[in-house]
Design a protein that fits this description.
Elements lengths: L10 H14 L3 H26 L5 H9 L6 H14 L5
């Protein structure tokens, strides 16, 4: 694959190239720190996103909600309640 001339790069390609050059010039210590920072940021964002998506629904609210679904009867609801009890999840 032939090298692309820099005068023919798009603005976006120039940004990516500059970032790649910056990363390639990092020392080992800087690289490790950069990767650790990125991983921590991703973990933090994932945690915060999960926190935002939590509905705050209680177990009883959940069971009432799914009981409205056609085909989910009393037996299924009882099985789900039993599963929650076995796992130690209690209604709050």
């Amino acid at each position: 694959m032939a090298k692309k001339r820099s005068c023919r790069r798009t603005v976006n390609e120039d940004k990516v190239h500059e970032k790649a050059v910056k990363i390639r010039k990092m020392t080992d210590e800087q690289l490790v720190q950069y990767v650790n920072d990125r991983a921590e940021k991703a973990r933090s964002e994932g945690f915060n996103q999960g926190k935002k998506s939590a509905t705050g629904m209680t177990v009883n609210d959940f069971l009432k909600e799914i009981s409205k679904i056609k085909g989910v009867g009393d037996v299924t609801i009882c099985k789900i309640m039993e599963h929650f009890r076995e796992k130690g999840i209690r209604d709050e």
